[in-house]
Amino acid sequence: MILFLFLSTHLTFSQVTLSLKNGTLGNIIQTIKTQTEYKFFYDDELTKLKVGDINEKNIPVKELLNKVLPPIGVTYKIDSQIIYLYPNKKEIKSTPKEKDSKQIIKGQVTDASGEPLIGVSVSVKGSTSGTMTDMDGNYTLIVPEGYKDIQFSYVGFKTEQHAIKGDKINIQMQEDTHTLDEVVVTALGIKKEKKMLGYSVQEIKGDKLNQTGDPSITGALQGKVAGLQMTTSNTGLNGSTKITIRGNSSLVDNNQPLWIVDGVPFTEESTSTASAYSGYDRGSTTVDINPEDIESISVLKGPNAAALYGSRAGNGVILITTKKGTKSNGFGVTYNNNFTWTQVASTLEMQDKYGQGTNGIYSDTPYSFGPELDGHEYTTFTGENIPFQKYGNKLKDFFDTGFAQTHNVAIGNVKEDSNYRASFGSTNANGIFSREKMNKINVDLTAGMKMNKYLSMDSKISLSRTKTENRPLYGKNGIVYQLLFIPNNIRLSDLKDHYMSPEKAHINWTGPFEEVLNPYFIENQYSNNDERWRAFGYYTAKLNFTDWLHGSAKYAFDYYNTTFKTTDITKCLDVTTLDEQKQDRLDRSESRFFEQNAEFMLLGNNNIGDRIQIGYSLGSNIMIQQRTGLDAFSVNMRKKLVWQMNSALGVNGANASYMKKQINSVFGTFQFTFDNYLTLDLTARNDWSSTLPSNNRSFFYPSANLSFVVSDFIRNQNWALPAWLTFAKVRLSAAQVGKDTDPYQLCNWLNYKQNGNTGDLTSPDTSIRANATLKPEISTSYEGGLELKFLQNRLGIDFTYYNSRTKNQVLIVPMTGSFNGKYINAGLVSNKGVELMLYGTPVKTKDFSFDLTINMAHNLSEVVELTPEKKEVIFNEGESNFIIDVGAREGGKLGDIYPIQSYKRDNNGNIIIRDGYPLIEESKGNDRKAIGNIQPKLLMSVTPSFAYKGIYLTALFDMKFGGDIVSMSESVATNYGMAKRTENRGTITVKGVNEDGTPNTTAVDAESYYKRIANVAEEFLYDASFIKLKELSLGYSFPKTLLKKTPFNSLKVAFVTRNLCYLMSHTPGTSPEGGYDTTMFSQAFDFTSIPYTRTLGFSVNVGF
């Protein structure tokens, strides 16, 4: 309600009080700047104009300007909070000589991007003749006879001087790198000059973030920040994503950063029920953010930058600032549309020489060790006689071409004391699975009002609804798994037309093999949909006690409600067993999450003399989280394909859950800056968490950051910098952050549930003993960095080294007695690395520019120690249906890959052979050796951008070097005889030694060999390095001169692509990034993930 009141009300409360005797316009300007937030652009000569005696009390600024400016020949315009002063053209005075002979010069002044500059001072050098540019950057100047040069000056830009040649001079002004200080958003939304920061922050502007129209903010971020790594689940529309900054530092946490949107903690959550046999990926909640609403993103890397945000910010913070109203010459309306097509780009490499059967003979089997595809006639499972030949690429031909269309419209404006912006976004997408759909709607409303010089208010509410239908099923019951072994001689059209009998029973394309399902039966008979409604926002009141002391109060909330529904029919092995096997099932879950934050802050800043500035703040925060859940199921529907909870003939059941958590906090900051080159920044925060015992729930974490701008120090001493060096800065920081645990870990509680098949109550879970003495996890981090800029900002370098150690992690260790394990604080993880960002403009002319940005990062996460009872942590504990485990050992690296089965080897590493076959042994316990690791040695991205007049071309090359991945997809295809490697038929002589040490010379049957090695992980271990062309955008921005006679203020069109291709990859046609969810475990392998896809399309952006 308050928001709409802001939108419909406009009050002019900016008032000033002044008493002048024989005053000047300069006095008026200074008074307004002191008593309001207005800024001015003007020619210095105007400040000398006399305004006489003025005595006014609480007079509105507009009324004062209207009163004093016309008599002295000055006019004004207000744009946002900036007042532009112009001399009236009629009042330009000329000397007698000028009246006799004069020249009129006209032109336009723009910045480096071609945008007009308002209020540029244009003067005739050596003369009193001058003017200023208008709202379109245009000017008209009278030049007296005998003068040869015109001078252009503007705050933040280099002063330009041009010789008078002709009667038209258009110029493009360049930023002055000495006077412009970049401002970035830091913790708690506080804006600071970047040069004063003692830690690493990387900011991305909204126009650079999503040039290819990615509907996911996480996808748009990938490759644009040094040290940021994104893991995707490769599961279709709105699949889960995970972001880590500077690697993994925790053995038990998800290691994801905290998301903050306009100061509101935004809960990021990825939900997956995936397993080796079944399950769905329900996506990530970050899709609720509309990328088109984003003004900028600041990435605070690690504890040093994020300590003020408390226990949730130990893994860094992603700070999103959304767009607000801006001044516009038109209606203030923008519209953009993206439409894209997605198609399968590459698949697992398959053999295409052999068909269905075993031992080289055709048989009704799922295996493809049959005869060669020679075209002879055979009878397929439909009873039809067709040639025995290859029928397409099943992994590619099964899928459709996906299509997505996104519409966004926004309206906003800024008035003297208020601003507003409203936006609406809609995304409709069809995935590459024929029944997969996604619809998303975003509504965002933001408004602000300055009530008077003391009080201002801001508010925001963002609403979204995301609905996804028929996400692909995972695991062995999923479509991709089934496609991995369908023989070459089976036609997809037969599978599509014969997947279900008239009695609604599954029709198998082969004999009664339990793992085999027709993929079209899965697609059409297994249905699911999920829907999430979300609302988040804030209301803030700011009070200016004085011009140096300010206070604020803020209430923020984040609420979402998610429902997930699945329906399936258990497969039938044969039509005749329909009555025995049929068991329809309906599952429905609903969860609600609600977080509230109340925050109070007091901020101040003072100057002590001319060389010292201090800033300080004190604040408190109360955070309350609540989560409720309800899971229900019904088995054996009363009527086929009628899915209602109350219509089950079989079992009905439900389980409910509830969670509440509260953190109370106080925090403070102190910043000391000397002579604008040396800044010391201190922060401190104390949290009290409800999830920890009373004697341990208070934890304190400080940080200290130092910035030394060497180049400014040298200039302040009046020393000379080398001509090639523009800027140099050294930074150091140290920080400590605490992290609590999940609720209800302090004492055991009885949790009865209903069995998902029988409906019976299960025994309460008492396998893990709680611990009432748990302490917070503590991470201590140190960071150092160097920033250099050369050749007037044409080249820049930003280097960072960091080292952190995390202790007191909450682990489960084994114990004897009635409990299998217990919670303890233990473990020490070391996380260290380097980051390097290179950026520059190698080529720049009047019409052409070439910009280049390179991000590089290396990180190493190691387990320094665990506990005497537990020397190994397995991330996939309890999931035993894969061919690998992933975990960490004391003294090893996080993400080591351990095989379940391995070759038996002699002391020289040779495989031991018996009767021609390699000996294979179970690989369990602490003695097994890691065969690889998920951690890359280097993450890198390269972004070249070219611009010629209005044409631009931007690319993003995403790269990873090092790390390993196991292709479980190839493992499955090898077992069934469909992998490319199985083309070698007949006999195989395995390289190795016999048990007596002699070289093996015994050949064995190829089919038996492939089936035997199919679960040996090292056979399918690949280097996970890659180089990918992730983004490419080619567009044209129409110049304003072409749009003058149209209703448009701006118009831009572009051809866009995402994930176009891998330029380098070592995997056998599968994605080297693939995983079936976003855990550390799944980063180690690809399994039933959808094939790699590319996206191409167009975008249109229009402003009115």
TrEMBL record:
InterPro entries for the chain: Beta-barrel_TonB, Beta-barrel_TonB_sf, CarboxyPept-like_regulatory, Plug_dom, Plug_dom_sf, TonB-dep_OMP_SusC/RagA, TonB-dep_OMP_SusC/RagA_CS, TonB-dep_rcpt-like
GO CC annotations on file: cell outer membrane
Positions of the TonB-dependent receptor plug domain: 196-317
Membrane topology: Multi-pass membrane protein
TonB-dependent receptor-like beta-barrel domain sequence ranges: 520-854
SUPFAM superfamilies: Carboxypeptidase regulatory domain-like, Porins
A GO biological process held by the record: siderophore transmembrane transport
Location in the cell: Cell outer membrane
Family: Belongs to the TonB-dependent receptor family.
This protein's name: TonB-linked SusC/RagA family outer membrane protein
